[in-house]
């Protein structure tokens, strides 16, 4: 029987960032819990978030073959039982590189129409400078949850998806919250 496999995606330009530390912690906790883990650092790997015609969905051809770079990322997603995306919350959403990864890779004929992602699990982990109270007061927490959990994950067939915001990261950075997030994801599906 093969071990469960996780893809941990990190989206921050600095390798010494709190986001990178949180992704490393998620990687380590998952590995310690029996997972094999693929760490995808979008910046370190030089991912280009710009959507060009060769990766744009073709509404007349659901079987369109996308670029080699996108197909390689699709293969990494396909291999994963669990996808954990760790990102800084910028302008109350994903950073451009993470949004570009979704735009280019989570494409028609792979992620939707039809989806090949049913049965996968997903954890979105956003590091937010603001307090939980500030996010709740303005509805940012609900907006981010709706966009990521429903608008991306569930739209693409991933029903076991959660969004976790780690707040107060400028004043009280604590990546131990990652422990609870990944510990709640057991190896057995």
Automatic annotation (TrEMBL):
Keywords annotated in UniProt: Oxidoreductase
Domain Flavodoxin-like fold residue range list: 5-175
Pfam families: Flavodoxin_2
Record GO cellular component, one term: cytosol
SUPFAM superfamilies: Flavoproteins
GO molecular-function terms, A-Z: NAD(P)H dehydrogenase (quinone) activity
InterPro entries associated with the record: Flavodoxin_fold, Flavoprotein-like_sf, NAD(P)H_dehydrogenase_qn
Family: Belongs to the NAD(P)H dehydrogenase (quinone) family.
PANTHER family given in the database record: NAD P H OXIDOREDUCTASE-RELATED, NAD(P)H DEHYDROGENASE [QUINONE] 1 ISOFORM 1
Name by which UniProt lists this protein: Putative NADPH-quinone reductase
């Amino acid at each position: 029987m093969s071990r469960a496999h996780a893809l941990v995606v990190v989206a921050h330009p600095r390798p010494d960032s709190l986001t990178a530390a949180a992704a490393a912690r998620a990687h380590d906790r998952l590995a310690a819990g029996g997972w094999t883990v693929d760490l995808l650092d979008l910046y370190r790997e030089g991912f280009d978030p710009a959507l060009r015609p060769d990766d744009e969905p073709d509404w007349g051809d659901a079987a369109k073959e996308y670029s080699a770079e996108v197909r390689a990322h699709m293969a990494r997603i396909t291999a994963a039982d669990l996808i954990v995306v760790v990102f800084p919350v910028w302008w109350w959403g994903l950073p451009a590189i993470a949004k570009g990864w979704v735009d280019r890779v989570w494409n028609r004929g792979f992620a939707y129409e039809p989806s090949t992602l049913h049965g996968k699990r997903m954890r979105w982990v956003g590091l937010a400078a603001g307090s939980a109270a500030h996010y709740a007061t303005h509805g940012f927490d609900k907006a981010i949850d709706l966009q990521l959990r429903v608008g991306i994950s569930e739209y693409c067939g991933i029903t076991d998806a959660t969004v976790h915001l780690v707040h107060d990261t400028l004043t009280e950075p604590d990546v131990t919250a990652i422990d609870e997030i990944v510990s709640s994801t057991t190896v057995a599906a």
